Amino acid sequence: MADSALIEKAKKIFENFLVKQGSRKTPERFSVIDELYILPEDEHIDVEGLFLKMRNKGYTISRATIYNTLDLLVESGLAVKHQFKDKVALYEQALTYKHHDHHVCNQCRKIREFSDPKINEIKEAMGKNFQSAITSHSLVLYGDCQIENCESLIGQQIF
After folding, report:
1. CA-based Rg of the chain, rounded to a whole angstrom?
2. Mind telling me which CDD domains this protein's record contains (predicted)?
């Protein structure tokens, strides 16, 4: 969960970005930062989830504004967008972002983040092999939940 100093830093970066783009600085856009940055660092959220969360808190904001603002946050480097398999786009805050990879459970849809130095070794070796300066990568592992009494899976069962 972000502290208020981090949120203010994100807002300042976003404000400067909007000015350079010649875009409007609306309270709704900045409220999206508030809500995205109060999420735990490892949480991913889609537009609908963010929309419902904000509506439940009394914000009057449209889905279109959320979509557009998230696109601007990605463009400004304040959010990261992920597309996992058949899921809708998910977003996470990026100001304190450290590169990581993901594991997605096919059953319960839980997303787990991980980092492994061996992946960087492979990335460097492939860069040498292909004579390429690898600048980024994306690795998503998909698996079947084998956790007994998985809370995420139980929450999805229809009774």
Report:
1. 18
2. Fur_like
CA-based angle 34:38:40, to the nearest 5? Answer: 150
Distance CA 104, CA 140 (A): 7
- Residue 99 makes CB contacts below 8 A (sequence gap 6+) with 115, 136
Residue 80: left (phi > 0), alpha (psi -120 to 50), or beta?
beta
What 8-state DSSP symbol labels residue 89?
A: P
- Interacting residues of 115 by C-beta distance below 8 A, sequence separation 6+: 98, 99, 100, 101
DSSP 51-78: HHHHHHTT----HHHHHHHHHHHHHTTS
The pairing of strands 140-143 and 101-105 is: parallel
Tens-digit pLDDT profile for residues 39-88? 988 888 999 999 999 999 999 999 999 999 999 999 999 999 988 877 78
Burial of 100 (0-12, 13-18, 19+ CB in 10 A): middle
- Tokens, residue 126: 């492939």
Which residues on neighbouring strands pair with residue 30, listed in sequence order? none
Q: What is the pTM of this model?
A: 0.77
Please state, as a whole number, how many other Cβ atoms lie within 10 Å of the Cβ of residue 58. Answer: 6
- Show the tokens assigned to 145: 């939940």
